[in-house]
Design goal:
The chain is of the alpha/beta class. It has eight helices and ten strands. The radius of gyration is 18 Å and the shape is globular. Bound molecules: adenosine-5'-triphosphate. InterPro entries: AAA+_ATPase, ABC_transporter-like_ATP-bd, ABC_transporter-like_CS, ABC_transpr_LolD-like, MacB-like_ATP-bd, P-loop_NTPase.
Length: 249
């Protein structure tokens, strides 16, 4: 395995292409996409429906294999990895948060966060889980079950679970999509502080220009191609870029 932990990019996609067979034709969901995420930076991926955002996230996280091109996760070229090595790399290097929080209803917040640590054989799971929940402002809710928490609090538990393993990169798929604007704001503030204060790298798919404006960079996809990038853009600029892309379809 070619691994260089000192790599300044937590994630690098080089010319990644992924097609799907649809009937007798081929649909190119990702078309030679090259994208890098520097350590300690936050990248948002936007684009019209069907532009390839989920496919990009799945290829980047090793959940799907590109037809061609290369994906480096934490300096490791994942193309050459077998299923077991890929599973281990995903467990050790990646954190995930989704629109739906995917918490285990029968477990408390602390048990939900400790679960992946326990599965990884960590004997310090309970302490690390409590620390992650404190970090995300949920110190008073360790013993609460998901149904006793608001949507925003549940997403913060999911976030604590994702970062408790100190992943090199956090993948977020519409992390604020199910939240009201106040809860979304709290989650976005927390993501920002994970980047600024803890050097977390984040790749986030979102439809929301306000959420994307909190990222350092925004990458825009259209028809599977990376067509534009913005750095430090405000929500209005991002929304206008997205509208242009949708209009150009
Ligand atoms: N498993 C699959 N089999 C066939 N086609 C697929 C598959 N997954 C995605 N596609 C197609 O690939 C293209 C890109 O899909 P993808 O889900 O990546 O887009 P997206 O930008 O995430 O869309 P949305 O914003 O609607 O979630 C679409 O045309 C989609 O229909």
């Amino acid at each position: 395995m070619s691994r260089s932990p000192a790599s300044p990019t937590a994630l690098q996609l080089d010319e990644v292409t992924r097609s799907y067979r649809s009937g007798i034709s081929n649909l190119t969901a990702l078309d030679h996409v090259t994208l890098g995420c520097r350590r300690g930076s936050w990248t948002a991926v936007m684009g019209p429906s069907g532009s390839g955002k989920s496919t990009l996230l799945n290829c980047a996280a090793g959940l799907d294999r590109p037809d061609s091109g290369r994906v480096f996760l934490d300096g490791t070229d994942i193309a050459g990895l077998g299923d077991d090595a890929l599973t281990r790399l995903r467990r050790d290097v990646i954190g995930f948060v989704f629109q739906q929080f995917n918490l285990v209803a029968a477990l408390t917040a602390a048990q939900n966060v400790a679960l992946p640590l326990r599965l990884a054989g960590r004997t310090d799971a309970d302490g690390v889980a409590a620390e992650a929940l404190h970090l995300l402002g949920l110190g008073a809710h360790l013993a609460h079950r998901p149904r006793e928490l608001s949507g925003g609090q549940q997403q913060r538990v999911a976030l604590a679970r994702a970062v408790a393993t100190t992943p090199s990169i956090l993948f977020a798929d519409e992390p604020t999509g199910a939240l009201d604007s106040a809860s979304a704001g709290i989650v976005l503030d927390l993501l920002r502080s994970l980047v600024d204060e803890h050097g977390q790298t984040i790749l986030m798919v979102t439809h929301d220009p306000l959420a994307a404006s909190r990222a350092d960079h925004v990458a825009f996809l259209r028809d599977g191609r990376l067509v534009s990038t913005l750095a430090g853009a405000d929500a209005a600029t991002i929304a206008a870029t997205l509208t242009d892309l949708e209009g150009a379809r």
